[in-house]
Design brief:
Elements lengths: L1 H14 L4 E5 L1 E4 L2 E9 L2 E6 L2 E6 L4 E10 L2 E9 L7 E7 L6 E2 L3 E4 L3 E6 L2 E6 L17 E5 L2 E4 L2
Antiparallel strand pairs: 1-6, 2-3, 3-4, 4-5, 6-7, 7-8, 8-9, 8-10, 11-12, 12-13, 13-14
């Protein structure tokens, strides 16, 4: 019976990832609370531990993905969508390891697919390929990989 309980616990751990798969408005990561508060249709305040990190007035929707942790570092992704159908989503990385938290430049090729991991203390985020609106002949855009950590941001194609 004890062996079955251990296997069940392992299966639940493997099946339930430690990060959000759909954008959320609040996450607690290593004693830090990061939130997105929407004030108007395109007015979003992103705060870490109650202090404003950034104020986004360019997008219709902003949410959080993550956390992505490892080697003593913690990151969250801002998933940003302007609401149109030409470009579904772009991202920004938030480094919660530093105080104050640091924010990367906007990256992404409009694909809502992103895979992120921490390696050597930096966040490696790769976006998927994006076709856009194939019915009107939108070209396919290749995904991109970026590296962010210690305030440095590097496209790593």
């Amino acid at each position: 019976m004890q062996k079955i309980s251990a296997l069940l616990a392992f299966a639940v751990f493997v099946v339930c990832p430690a990060h959000a798969t759909e954008p959320v408005t609040s996450l607690t990561v290593r004693d830090h609370q990061i939130t997105v508060r929407t004030v108007g249709q395109t007015d979003h305040v992103i705060a870490v531990d109650g202090s404003v990190l950034t104020h986004d007035t360019n997008n219709e929707r902003v949410g959080l993905l993550g956390p992505y942790t490892g080697q003593g570092h913690a990151y969250v992704l801002l998933a940003e969508s302007a609401g149109g159908n030409a470009c579904e989503m772009q991202f920004q990385a938030v480094d919660l390891t530093t105080s104050p938290a640091r924010l990367s430049p906007v990256f992404g090729d409009c694909s809502p697919d992103v895979h992120a991991r921490v390696s050597r203390g930096t966040l490696h985020a790769t976006t998927g390929d994006y076709t856009g609106r194939p019915s009107v002949g939108s070209p396919k855009t290749s995904g991109e990989t970026v590296v962010f950590g210690d305030g440095k941001f590097t496209p790593a194609r």
